[in-house]
Each structure stands twice: as structure tokens, then as C-alpha cells.
Amino acid sequence: MSAGKSSSGAGIGTVLFLIFMVLKLCGVISWSWWWVSAPIWIPLLLAVVLLGGAALFVRAAR
Hints:
Layout: H1 12-25, H2 33-36, H3 38-61
């Protein structure tokens, strides 16, 4: 048995992106590609904003 837990499956963001991409390519939805790819870039954007806010907080606390 391994001590660490590893996951090799796709995350929910990747699955949503793939679903939206197929729907867009099949003409079912007419969303902008920005919204189709949103499940990929929104979590990254949130991580950057949170890390930036934490860095500012730490710098201000000095």
C-alpha cells in the first residue's frame, strides 16, 4: 500500500472544458471561446489573485 494518495484522473475543470469544447465545435452552443475555456483559466486566475493578496498582506505586516 502506498502512503500518499495520487490521482491520475482528469479534474472537473478539464472535464467541463472538454464538454464545452465538443458542444461548441458541434454548434450546440454559440459561446465565445473565452467562456468555453473558462473552466481552465478561472481557477488559475483565482489562484494568482489569492496568492497576490496573500503576498501583499505579508508585505504589509512587516
